[in-house]
Amino acid sequence: MKGGTFWDAVAVGQNVGLEALSILEGRTERRPGPVIWDSRREPRISFLVPPRSIIDTESIGCRLLSFGDYVAVPGLLVIEPPGPHWLVPPDPGQPDRLVDPVLLVSALGHADGARWATVSAGSGQLQVLVNDAQVDGRACLRCTAAELPLRPAGRGTVMSDDGVERSFDRVFCTTHLETESVSKAATE
Fold first, then answer.
1. Orientation angle between helical segments 14-28 and 101-111, nearest 10 degrees
2. pTM of the complete model
3. pLDDT digits over 66-125, tens only?
4. Which residues contact 65 (CB under 8 A, 6 or more apart)?
């Protein structure tokens, strides 16, 4: 289907796209908008954004598909491979709802160079995607904000590039530290 009329598409590699989708779902606490997974030759994820969205593609390593570009759009019920399929199908109740381009750029920026870490949450453990600033204690574990004050909230572990597991101090901004404390108390 030709882009640029009802939507544009932001296409990224499969791994970064899946990580960005995970971040978007966590930040929005809902489905972020239509997302297509084309798992053929060069697997990629395409996020459908409003037409004429302004996205700095070079800084986040993606491709903006708009007027004159074509995107393989699956049928509404196609949610499994082979071929292009919906990771997040369009919402029939809100057919005009698309992925927020500002949130998408933020998620793609966070996903680039990020890795999964294990953190304690109440009596269990969670896997979260972290970047270097979060592992170094310079950014909130939940929202990636680096504004002070950041407060410590326990330890986590992350696997380094050379396969060595190391611990790190979890820090949260004031807003998310309160949310973390309420969540922790509710699970105990």
1. 120
2. 0.71
3. 888 888 899 989 999 888 999 999 988 887 889 999 999 988 888 877 777 777 666 667
4. 3, 8, 9, 10, 11, 46, 71
Tokens 């380094």 correspond to 160
Q: What is the 3-state secondary structure (H, E, C) of the chain?
A: CEECCCCEEEEEEHHHHHHHHHHHHHHHCCCCCCEEEECCCCCEEEEEECCCCCCCHHHHCCEEECECCECCCCCCCCCCCCCCEEEECCCCCCCCCCCCHHHHHHHHHHHCCCEEEEEEECCEEEEEEECHHHHCCCCCCCCCCCCCCEEEEEEEEEECCCCCEEEEEEEEEHHHHHHHHHHHHHHC
Place of tokens 């074509």: 70
For residue 58 the two structure tokens come to 């070079």
> What are the structure tokens assigned to 154, written together?
């326990």
